[in-house]
């Protein structure tokens, strides 16, 4: 049985790479585009450290099953290029994972944003790897669509 799950989705956004990086490195901004963060606006959240810096921890706890409880720590920042997170899930099931945003400049005003997730799958959950990949891929794609709408809408409002 497969022991590792990996899902990756990308989108092109009409924004400069550095502007997207500066927005994405702040964990609290995920409340504005992540389908998981947006699924329960009333969830309990706590923060430890300085958002946008290595070591910052964003924790959540929700009664909504697909939101659950856990934490996300910024584990590595490569200025203007990537943001890496270490994830700890407590409920609905205990697990760990890693997530990364990669940014690639297409031209000065267009950036490709790639978001991936990887984590271990243990038996018997490994039996459902394909289903998890499909669901997770759908959620990553929807979150990236939300990010694109949010960031490109900001441009229209400022004009």
CATH topology: Alpha-D-Glucose-1,6-Bisphosphate, Chain A, domain 4
Strand order of the largest sheet: 1-7-6-5-4-3-2
The CATH homologous superfamily is named START domain
Largest sheet: 7 strands, antiparallel
The CATH architecture is 2-Layer Sandwich
Look at the helices and sheets and give the structural class: alpha+beta
The tally of beta strands, per DSSP, is 7
- Shape category: globular
Q: Low-confidence segments, ≥5 residues, pLDDT <50?
A: none
Mean pLDDT figure? 88
Q: Based on the structure, what is the oligomeric state of the protein chains?
A: single chain
How many domains? 1
Q: How much helical structure, as a percent, in the residues?
A: 25-40%
- Distance N to C terminus: 53 Å
């Amino acid at each position: 049985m497969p022991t590792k799950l990996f899902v990756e989705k990308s989108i092109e956004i009409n924004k400069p790479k550095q502007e997207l990086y500066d927005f994405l490195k702040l964990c609290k901004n995920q409340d504005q585009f992540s389908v998981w963060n947006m699924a329960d606006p009333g969830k309990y959240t706590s923060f430890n450290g300085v958002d946008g810096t290595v070591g910052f921890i964003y924790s959540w706890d929700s009664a909504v099953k697909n939101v659950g409880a856990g934490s996300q720590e910024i584990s590595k920042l490569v200025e203007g290029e990537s943001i890496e997170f270490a994830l700890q899930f407590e409920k609905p099931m205990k697990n760990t994972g890693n997530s990364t945003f990669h940014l690639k400049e297409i031209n000065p005003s267009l950036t490709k944003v790639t978001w991936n997730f990887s984590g271990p799958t243990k038996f018997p959950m490994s039996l459902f790897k394909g289903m998890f990949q499909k669901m997770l891929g759908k959620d990553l794609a929807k979150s990236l669509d939300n990010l694109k709408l949010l960031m490109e809408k900001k441009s229209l409002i400022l004009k």
